[in-house]
Amino acid sequence: MSPEPSGIPRGPEQHPPGAHDPRRHRHGRSAGHPDDHGDEAAAEAPTLPTGWSPVGADTGDQLVATRTTTGRRRRADRDAEPAGPGTGRHAVVAPSSAAPPGPVAGHGHGHSTAPPAGRRVRLLIAALLVPCALATLVGVVLLWPSGGPPSTAQPVSQQPVRAEVTTASAADCSQGSGDGGCVALVVRMADGPMPGRDLVQVVPVEPGSPTFAVGDQVVLSWSGADPNDPGSYQVVDFQRGAPLGWLAAVFAGAVLVLGRWRGLAALAALALSFVVLLMFVLPAILDGHNPLAVAVVGSCLIMFVVLYLTHGPSARTSTAVLGTLLSLALIGALGAAFSAAARLTGLDDQTSNLIATLGTGVDARGLLLAGVVIGALGVLDDVTVTQTSAVWELRRANPGLGAPGLFAAAMRIGRDHVSSAVNTLVLAYAGASLPLLLLFTLSGRGLSDVVTTQDVATEVVRTLVGSIGLVASVPITTALAALVASREALVDE
Fold first, then answer.
1. Dihedral angle sign, alpha carbons of residues 479, 480, 483, 486
2. pLDDT at 252
3. What is the DSSP string of 301-321?
4. Residue 217: which of 243, 194, 253 has the closest Cα?
C-alpha cells in the first residue's frame, strides 16, 4: 500500500455531480468493490505528476493539482484536464462555487521579475555607488603623478650586478693581521660592466652577517667607479628570483585548481591591484601629493576593479562594495583622529631614510594612515564578500526569511568570521613587528612604557583602528545585504 503523501488534507469523500472520483477509475472498479484491490485502491491517495503540489480549496475536502512555478492560467488548464484510467493523472476538480485556490505551497526557483521595492533598493545602491565611482575617477585624474621623483631627490648611484660565488674560504680582515675574522669570496659576475670576470670580496663574519657557500647566487652593488677595482663592488644580497617565481607559480596553480574561471578572474584582479599600487599610488606619493588622499583613492579604485572583476556586476557585489566603502571611511576617520590624539609622527627609521633620500618634506603621518587604509582593504574585502554571500545563500535556502531574519542569521556567521579575522589582523601586525617586540622585551621597561613608545604605539593604533573597521563592516554589510536580498527575486543559478 502506498503511503499517503504528507501535507495533503483528506476530508469526507464528497464530489460534485459530474466530477470524476479518481478511485473509481483505478483498475476499472469502484472504490468500494469487495475484491482484493478495492480496499487498497480506496486507501491510496491521488497521484500527482512531477512538479505539481496539492492546494486545498476553501471547502477543505477538495484537492487541486497545480504547478508551483506557474500562474493561474496554467493552474486552470491543469484543473480542466480529465482524469481517467491510464492517463497517469488524477485531479479532483473543485466545484464551481468554490473560491479560487490560495497561495501555492512551497517555492519554485523560477525566473521572475523583481518587485518594485527591489528595483527601488537597487536604484538606491546605484545612487550611492555611482557618485563614489565618479569621485574615484576624478581623484585619479587630480592625483595622477605628473613626473618622476622631485628634483631634490638624490640620484641612485649604486647599480646591482648579478654574480655567483665560486670559492669561499676563511681570511684575515686586514692583510697579515692573523685574526681570521672574515671570509674571502671569489665571485664571477654574470652582468654589469665586466660580465664573466672574477673578483675577490672580503666579507666580515659577524653575528648579523649571512653565511655564504659555493654556488650561491648573490647581488653585488657597483658604485660606478673603476670597474677593474674590486673596491668598487660590495656583496649586498642574494638573488631570489627563481624561488619566488616557483612560489608564485604554485600559488597561481592552487588558485586555478580550486577557483577555475573564478580563480583566473581573481588572479587578474590581483595583477591589476599591483598595477594600481606601482603605477599610481607610489608615484603619486613621491610626486608630493597627500599620502592619505592617494591611499583612499587608490584603495577605492582597487576595490571597484577587484570586486566587480572577481564576482561580476550584481546587486550582491554592489552591496559588498558599498559595505567596504563605508568601512574604509570609518577606518580613515578613526585613524586620523587617534593618530593626532596620540601625537604619532610616523617618523620611523624607514620614513626617515625616505625623507633623506627625497631631500624634501614628506607627510610622515599621512604615510602612516595610508598604510593603515591599504592594509585593511584586503581583510575588509574578505569579510564583506563573505557576509553578502552568506545572506544570499540563507535567502535561497529559506525564501520565507525577511530582512530581520536574514540579518539575525547572517550575524551569527559574521560573529564567528570577525573573531578569527581580528585575530588574523593582530597577529599579522605582531609578526611584522616581531624584532621590535623582542627588542623591547630585553629592554627591562614596563609594559605601559613599552606600549606608549612611538614605534609600538604606531602598531597599536594601526591594529586597533583596522580591527574596529573590520568589526563594524559586519553589521553594516549584513544590514545592507539583508535589505537588498529580501527584496530580490530568486533566480536559479
1. negative
2. 94
3. HHHHHHHHHHH-SSHHHHHHH
4. 243
Cβ neighbours of residue 83 closer than 8 Å, sequence gap 6 or more: 20, 22, 25, 89, 90, 91, 92
Yes or no: say if 161 and 228 are a contact pair by the CB < 8 Å rule: no
Sheet holding 182-189: strands in order across? 198-204, 182-189, 159-171, 217-222, 233-238
Q: What is the helix (H) or strand (E) element at residue 472, kind and residue range? A: helix 454-485
Largest CA distance in the chain: 125
415-434 average pLDDT score: 77
Torsion of CA 115, 117, 119, 125, to 10 degrees: -150
Q: Where does 30-121 show beta strands of DSSP type E?
A: 52-56, 63-67
Cell of 169: 674560504
Instruction: Say which residue, 437 or 157, is predicted with more confidence.
Output: 437
Q: What is the mean pLDDT of residues 10-33?
A: 44
Look at residue 245 in the predicted model and tell me its pLDDT: 94
Task: Calculate the average pLDDT of the chain.
Answer: 75
The residue with cell 557585489 is 317
Say if residues 167 and 215 touch (Cβ distance below 8 Å): no
